[in-house]
From TrEMBL:
Pathway: Amino-acid biosynthesis; L-histidine biosynthesis; L-histidine from 5-phospho-alpha-D-ribose 1-diphosphate: step 7/9
EC number: 2.6.1.9
Cofactor: pyridoxal 5'-phosphate
PROSITE patterns, per the entry: AA_TRANSFER_CLASS_2
GO MF annotations in UniProt: histidinol-phosphate transaminase activity
Self-association and partners: Homodimer.
Transmembrane segments: none
Descriptive protein name: Histidinol-phosphate aminotransferase
Lineage: Bacteria, Bacillati, Actinomycetota, Actinomycetes, Micrococcales
NCBIfam families: hisC (TIGR01141), PRK03317.1 (NF002877)
Length: 371
């Protein structure tokens, strides 16, 4: 082929040809219950403190920010200690622009060409994209019919594919289901047997919403140097717009991520916003309690109406099963309620909103699905 010098070709990686950027619809409707955001905006006091912190950070914006954000890592360690009782050294914490970027750092450090990452579906639809973007092979195993993960299935898949990265969402998205310790420990054991090594990332984006008695994998960190637990300020903290995700692991794991991060990836403004919000974590956690109660009530309500509902340790509920889920989704949207068409065929996912939003969802669903 001769080159057309007036119209030079773009050398797009072949595996990206024809792909569309990922994203849920961002529609301006009265009730947005589709991306698991916290329905409560930051309080006046939180807004004031964030604004003051940003103003202070602004006086230094001619300088690059603290590359290693030691203060933020110390605040995150203190927060996790209060939230889950697990004591971590600030050097065991890492942060980035959303846990999306955290996962990218993990795959940049531990994945790459000739290596494989594995997860178990149905699960978070971004995982294969992180693998693709870092040129990491992607293998997906299956969860059971009830969305649990059979430890034997996980063990066999890891032994067969010898991945260098295992991604486990718990509580899982889009199902809301959490993994018991026994399953995570079986995966950790199988990963430890992979020649050359394998890291396990438990994605606890919804960790704060777990029901009483559901453990956090943070408790397993002390004994497992190949484990990392990722968290985010996007969901429980109600700070999705700030883009702050973080990860806890043994220090050598974190030090590997420090090698691949772009210099100064976390802006001084972002660091200031995150620290100001973390100073209010007690107040924000009280709100999480009311969202949990609202979630449990919604699960009960849907089940009473004969629907199947996955157990949820998250701030959303997966329910079904509908012959034509698209029609249900559209019917709700026509009534001003935006939910998510995601997960196995026939299922739909709704985020837990304010009591008024949940009521709007219920009223619309009763009409649309003739409950
Ligand atoms: C929402 C979500 C995240 C959080 O992503 P951020 O980039 O931190 O906003 C991570 N993992 C899962 C499974 C999620 O659903």
């Amino acid at each position: 082929m001769t080159a057309d010098l007036a119209r030079p070709a773009l050398p797009l990686r072949p595996e990206l040809a024809g792909l569309e950027p990922y994203g849920a619809p961002q529609l301006d409707v009265p009730h947005r219950l589709n991306v698991n955001e916290n329905p409560y905006a930051p309080s006046e006091q939180v807004v004031a403190d964030i604004a003051a912190a940003v103003a202070r950070a602004s006086t230094d914006l001619n300088r690059y920010p603290d590359r290693d954000f030691g203060d933020l890592r110390a605040d995150l360690a203190a927060y996790l200690r209060a939230e889950s009782g697990v004591a971590l050294d600030p050097a065991q914490l890492w942060a980035a622009n959303g846990s999306n970027e955290i996962m990218l750092h993990v795959l940049q450090a531990f994945g790459g060409p000739g290596r494989t990452a594995i997860s178990f579906a149905p699960t978070y639809s971004m995982y294969p994209e992180y693998a693709r973007d870092t040129n990491t092979g992607w293998v997906v195993g299956r969860r059971d019919e009830d969305f649990s993960l059979d430890p034997a299935v996980a063990r066999d898949a890891i032994a067969e594919h010898t991945p260098s990265v295992v991604l486990l969402a718990s509580p899982n998205n889009p199902t809301g289901t959490a993994l018991p310790f026994a399953t995570v420990e079986a995966v950790l054991d199988a990963a430890a047997r992979v020649p050359g090594g394998c890291v396990v990332v438990v994605d606890e984006a919804y960790g704060e919403f777990r029901r009483r008695g559901t453990p956090s994998s943070l408790e397993l960190l002390a004994d497992h140097p190949h484990l990392a637990v990722s968290r985010t300020m996007s969901k429980a903290f109600g700070l999705a717009g700030a883009r702050v995700g973080y990860l806890a692991a043994a220090t050598p794991f974190v030090d590997a991520l420090r090698v691949v991060r772009l210099p100064y990836h976390l802006s001084a403004v972002t660091q200031a916003v995150a620290r100001a919000a973390l100073a209010h974590s007690a107040e924000l956690m009280a709100q999480v309690g009311s969202l949990r109660d609202e979630r449990d009530a919604l699960v009960g309500w849907l089940r009473e109406r004969g629907l199947r509902v996955a157990d949820s340790d998250a701030n959303f509920v997966l329910f079904g099963v509908f012959d034509d889920r698209r029609a249900i989704w559209q019917g709700l949207l026509d009534r001003g309620v935006l939910i998510r068409e995601v997960g196995p065929a026939g299922w739909l996912r709704v985020s837990v909103g304010t009591p008024a939003e949940t009521q709007a969802f219920k009223d619309a669903l009763v009409e649309v699905a003739a409950l």
